[in-house]
Amino acid sequence: MAGARHGTGPPLTRARPTGLLGGSFNPAHGGHRTISLNAIDALGLDELWWLVSPGNPLKSAKGMAPLPARLASAQRMARRAPIRATAIEAEFGTRYTVDTLRKLVRRYPNRRFIWIMGADNLVQLPRWRDWRDIARLMPIAVVARPGYNGRTHAAQAMGWLRRFVRPADQKLHWTNWRPPALVFLRFSPDVRSATAIRQANPRWFERYAGRAMRDPLTHSRLRDRERKGTA
Ligand SMILES: Nc1ncnc2c1ncn2[C@@H]1O[C@H](COP(=O)(O)OP(=O)(O)OP(=O)(O)O)[C@@H](O)[C@H]1O
Ligand SMILES: O=C(O)c1ccc[n+]([C@@H]2O[C@H](COP(=O)([O-])O)[C@@H](O)[C@H]2O)c1
User: pTM to 2 decimals?
Assistant: First the structure.
């Protein structure tokens, strides 16, 4: 029973199912919010954390708005939802996802994590540092995205990942899966993208100009909230 004590051992608490969505969020948009809410529902998540990247190692810094502006846009887009926009990677000093996830797994033993990404990210996954180790750390959920779905199953990464694919109708049981494990999620197609927003308004970040990371919801604050039981 959750929270019960058995004998003299430590209290047993159910690990909290937590989704992780890493991204540039340049800026955050309704597509991020919609896929996150759908994933929370489909995977039975307690929370979904957005990891606003200090800088995608594969993307040029050119055209990348400052982190405080991207974080502020993410915080705004995450309002009134069990989504936490975080700057955890800036605090950890990590750029590569594998390093971030290793730290998160170590520092949050009372949570079970699942890495969530759009189908476009699956296509480029073999270019990520130690990408197979990412899959060995936690299950992965790939969200269908217009323009990429046909390419998803043919993606180079699938040459190795294919054997770990789980049936989509088992997705609510992901916390029992031993990684590597991969599941495909298909919600209503969402065409929104940050590229389209930047094309329409290249100076979108000006509304957040001068914003310091006043409330970055960093690891230390999350950890404090967990200790106080208010997370
Ligand atoms: N409309 C969408 N449908 C499915 N996945 C999405 C969608 N928008 C973003 N994602 C996923 O969210 C994560 C973060 O995305 P990101 O911040 O790069 O936004 P983006 O719209 O893909 O940006 P850009 O157009 O600049 O590449 C990635 O895993 C991406 O695949
Ligand atoms: O670890 C890597 O090598 C790596 C390479 C490219 C992208 N990523 C991560 O992929 C996530 C999505 O990035 P983006 O820019 O497509 O939103 C974000 O968390 C990045 O840090 C990670």
Answer: 0.91
